[in-house]
Amino acid sequence: MCVYCYQEARQTGLSPSKLAVLKELAFHANEDARAWPSIATIVRFTGWSRSTVNRCLKFLRDNRLIHRDPNYKKWIRSSCYMIDRHSIRELIERRELDRA
């Protein structure tokens, strides 16, 4: 588990479903903030539907909070997600400024 990713995810102010998916990726991530759980694994541990998980992953990618590794082994059923800690920290800082 990437402890820093998990702690930072909790501070983002994302909706419950998006936060659950990001935290699940952080839970499965290594020290380099790379995670490769399958969609089925994310669905099982978050309790959200497959379509909700896919929507959340798209949101996280579109907002550059995560990236998919295009060079990851394509024959494996799961993708490799890279959590962008820099973008997450920027989101947290913007959220804190909005509250001030």
Short description:
This protein is mainly alpha-helical and 100 residues long.
Task: Using brief descriptors, characterize the structure shown.
100 residues, mainly alpha, Arc Repressor Mutant, subunit A, three-stranded antiparallel β-sheet, 5 helices, globular
Characterize the structure shown.
With 100 residues, the protein is mainly alpha-helical. It has one domain: Arc Repressor Mutant, subunit A (Orthogonal Bundle), CATH 1.10.10. 56% of the residues lie in helices and 8% in strands. It has 5 helices and 3 strands; from the N terminus they run ααβααββα. A 3-stranded antiparallel sheet has the order 1-3-2. Helix 1 packs antiparallel against helix 2. The longest helix is centred in the last third of the chain and has 15 residues.
